[in-house]
## 1
Amino acid sequence: AHELVDPSYFNLSLVSKKFLEEEKMNLAKASLRRKQNHIEQFIKWTGNPDITKVSKMIMGEYINSIKMTRKPAYDTLRNIFADISYLF
């Protein structure tokens, strides 16, 4: 998805929109909604930065914040991580 957008501007919401448009062809509706929800929550948490500014450290901080506030099951946390990671 990163390569499909204007190379001078790579904010997460723009990249995720292109990414989810492509994923729509390959995923069941429920899986697409779950992935979209996880990505949107991540974008909201990060403030929609340029995709080149998102690091492993930021992703780790996000996952830790989820663990501390929601205390999700391991599989839920794994799904959140995977859904967001596919964007990159």
## 2
Amino acid sequence: KSQMSKAEKAIITALCMIYKDDRILLQNKVSGWVGLTFPGGHIEKEESFVLGIKREIFEETGLLINNPKLCGLKQFQTEDDERYIVIFFKTNEFKGELKSSDEGEMVWMKRSELNENNVAKGFLDTLKVFDDDNITELMYERHKTDDEFEWILKFY
């Protein structure tokens, strides 16, 4: 009797909320997920998640972060049926000189300044997971309707 593999294809990325008082550090992304969002990126094969987010943050912001705390995740299936996982970290421990990258300009922003018009699609939903200790996961579930897929947002 053959054993079905439990393995699946996955893309693993991470984002980090760097905060100071009532301000958070955001990247005004110019391609892909356009608009204000948290800096981050792909975790490389065989790379530690923590070291991966530290590397991505340094590449995109010039900052060295310390003690990033795991605070949740987001996931959905891609069109190629890969599980796309975004690991969420946050920290208020950082040093270095802030710089921007070709991914987008880095800006410190007060939470009160955030609105639907300037943030990336889905950012405010993502922010809920970072902020609410009772929410661990944001998942976009695919539901087939006729010939199309409908995305249902779920918090767990």
